[in-house]
């Protein structure tokens, strides 16, 4: 779950379902936006992952905050807000500086 606060007031929240990880991947990700808030990216990743980076459509790179391994799930969890006005384009997961996966995050076209 991701809860967004302004001061002491919760203004948004989300979570995502599905398996912890899909069979052939080290990551299961979600990205979304509500109202006038920026896009948020969340991910569940294998314990071998030590860095998760979101790249936006305009090329900004944002390192997601990454939890330690949460034992009941055997996974690490990551999340970050993207810069205002930017959409996610891809994620990169790393271990010791080596890229393990870089899944694209296709987005629908922006409304005109």
Task: Describe this protein's structure.
The chain is mainly beta. Helices cover 0% and strands 46% of the residues. It has no helices and ten strands. The strands form three sheets. It has a four-stranded antiparallel beta sheet with strand order 3-4-8-7, with no helix packed on it. Strands 6-5-9-10 form a four-stranded antiparallel beta sheet, with no helix packed on it. A hairpin with a 2-residue loop joins strand 9 and strand 10 (98-101). The model has no long low-confidence stretch (mean pLDDT 84).
Key structural traits:
single chain; 112 residues; mainly beta; four-stranded antiparallel β-sheet; 46% strand; globular
- Integer average pLDDT: 84
Shape: globular
Distance between the termini: 31 Å
Largest sheet composition: 4 strands, antiparallel
Number of strands: 10
Characterize this entry briefly.
This protein is an all-beta fold. The chain has strands at about 1-5, 10-15, 25-30, 40-45, 50-55, 60-65, 65, 75-80, 90-95, 100.
What topology does this entry show?
Elements: E1 2-6, E2 9-14, E3 27-32, E4 40-45, E5 51-56, E6 61-63, E7 65-66, E8 76-81, E9 88-95, E10 98-101
Antiparallel strand pairs: 1-2, 3-4, 4-8, 5-6, 5-9, 7-8, 9-10
